[in-house]
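Hi support team,

I've been running sequence recovery on a batch of backbones for a student project. Most finish fine, but this one hangs at about 90% for roughly twenty minutes before it completes. I'm not sure whether the input is malformed or the queue is just slow. I've pasted the structure tokens below so you can try to reproduce it. Let me know if you need the job ID as well.

Thanks,
M.K.
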């Protein structure tokens, strides 16, 4: 179920068998919409085409390396849908698009609206970025952050991942709707799917990435997955923003104004997130240790030997903590279970 152009739209497609084709018998409505849009484009009408795109977890590394960036020939508006559901990114085509646009701007002696739309989207989503451009002499896409200039290929994984994804969305918007000019990213509707939206991002960046994307593409509906409590905490409590736990999809999860610990515990089912796993293991070991000491009274020599071995097993993983060891040893001595086991 969904909406298009303010009207309800419903469709369904099924995969008919492991090697079968996808059915289309219940997708007639959306196919009619597609045909109507295609006809409008052929008639050169300024119809707005929705952007559709998917970014999988391999979007950064499943790419081919290249030494030289070529230029692109003018294409149909529908090129904005090229490989839109391919989970990998096409950095080669993205860099070619930038090079073509920069050369066109130099040749015409004025800004190219589609290029400026893409620039604006990138700068709004990359922290501390002040400039992004394709340098023809270096044959490379360059990004300036805090006065430091780096080529796209030398950026960290987080920066390359976000720059490539944001630029790809913006380029698709500009290609699909060139008549929107510099406002293509701001005025193009659509649906963008992102698997692991926090991929390669520092926690500080995770806390702002959702807001940045919503600001850069305000008419796009983003559907994203994440395992990050920072992402969950950053979700604005506004209409249209929902958090769905896939382990309990029937219930929306609360997230507004919650601490990271509350989110980890109540939303992600992490036990005692305030403490490390090691601390919890030490606590459980100490509890069992004291239980063994209590159980030692009135035992036979064989039972005492077994209990001593168990005490050694419980303390061994934490031999690097002298205070912890000293405390447990004092209790062990008091219980008469100190010494070697023979």
């Amino acid at each position: 179920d969904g909406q298009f152009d303010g009207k309800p739209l419903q469709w369904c497609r099924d995969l008919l068998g492991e090697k079968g084709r996808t059915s289309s018998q219940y997708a007639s409505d959306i196919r009619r919409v597609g045909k109507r849009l295609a006809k409008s484009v052929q008639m050169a009408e300024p119809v707005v085409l929705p952007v559709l795109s998917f970014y999988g977890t391999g979007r950064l590394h499943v790419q081919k390396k290249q030494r030289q960036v070529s230029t692109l020939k003018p294409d149909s508006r529908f090129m904005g849908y090229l490989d839109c559901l391919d989970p990998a990114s096409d950095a080669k085509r993205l860099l070619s698009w930038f090079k073509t646009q920069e050369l066109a701007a130099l040749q015409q002696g004025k800004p190219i609206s589609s290029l400026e739309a893409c620039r604006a989207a990138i700068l709004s989503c990359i922290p501390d970025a002040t400039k992004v451009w394709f340098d023809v002499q270096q044959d490379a896409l360059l990004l300036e952050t805090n006065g430091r200039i780096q080529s796209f290929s030398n950026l960290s994984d987080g920066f390359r991942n976000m720059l490539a994804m944001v630029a790809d969305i913006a380029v698709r918007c500009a290609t699909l709707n060139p008549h929107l000019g510099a406002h293509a990213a701001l005025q193009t509707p659509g649906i963008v799917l992102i698997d692991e939206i926090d991929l390669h991002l520092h926690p500080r960046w995770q806390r702002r990435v959702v807001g940045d994307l919503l600001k850069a593409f305000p008419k796009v509906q983003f559907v994203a997955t994440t395992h990050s409590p920072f992402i969950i905490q950053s979700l604005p409590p506004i209409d249209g923003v929902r958090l769905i736990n896939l382990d309990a999809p029937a219930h929306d999860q609360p997230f507004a104004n919650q601490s990271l610990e509350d989110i980890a515990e109540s939303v992600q089912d992490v036990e005692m997130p305030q403490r490390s796993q090691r601390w919890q293991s030490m606590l459980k070991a100490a509890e069992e240790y004291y239980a063994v000491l209590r159980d030692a009274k009135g035992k036979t020599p064989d039972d005492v030997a077994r209990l001593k071995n168990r005490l050694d097993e419980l303390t061994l993983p934490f031999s690097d903590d002298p205070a912890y060891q000293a405390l447990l040893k004092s209790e062990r001595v008091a219980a008469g279970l100190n010494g070697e086991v023979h």
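--
Follow-up from support: It reproduced on our side and the slowdown came from queue contention, not your input. Residues 157-176 form the longest helix (20 residues). No action needed from you.
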